[in-house]
Amino acid sequence: MKSYIVLVIVCSITFALNAQKKETIAQNRSDYIGKKSMDFFKQPPHATWFDESYDSYELDRKTITKLKNHLDGITIKVFMSVWCHDSHREIPRLSKILEAIKFDSQNLEIIALNRAKKTPNNLQEGFDIRRTPTLIIYKNGNEINRFVEQPRKSLEKDLLKILSGKNYKHTYFNIHKK
How far apart are CA 147 and CA 82, in angstroms? Predict the structure, then answer.
């Protein structure tokens, strides 16, 4: 009986370690890193987390209407990671918001990073990416602000504050800025 219990414990530990190793390998796969489109995350294996967050997010329609008036000259660069729980939450929400405001996907660049927050061809170079997701918002080619990890109020309200030119200081970014 003791040997049976030991065998079950050893098998359980081996299974858990192997599953963890496979997950780490999958999360660092080179095809998960680099420039991506929003459609990339709507496909398996990412669709599971993407769809869950996308479908459960309720848009703030009043703020969405206001956002539509502030899109001229705006581009967004997103640094995210497929292994990051904050990215799993915010990127699908961002997708839903951008679809609702009819944001031109040509003005959106998504860069997926590995665990070291890098890409093989250093697409992160010069952007001071410390946390994911990081959304950098540009107006006419100039960075006007960024959003790091999670919103202060809501993603829509934070974006509206940034795009309308109001003073927006993201708590994390400003505390940790060099």
Answer: 18
**56, containing H or E segment:** helix 47-56
Q: Name the residue among 160, 144, 39, 44 with its Cα closest to residue 97.
A: 160
- Which pTM was predicted? 0.78
CA distance 40 to 47: 9
d(CA 176, CA 87): 19
The reported pLDDT for the residue numbered 175 is 37
Paired tokens of 23: 């997950």
**Which single residue is written with the structure tokens 């927050």?**
117
Neighbours of 21 (CB within 10 A): 10
Please report the pLDDT score of residue 172 as a whole number: 47
Residue pointed to by tokens 């309308």: 164
Q: Return d(Cα 141, Cα 146) in angstroms, integer.
A: 14
- Spatial neighbors of 160 by CB under 8 A, at least 6 apart, are 63, 66, 67, 70
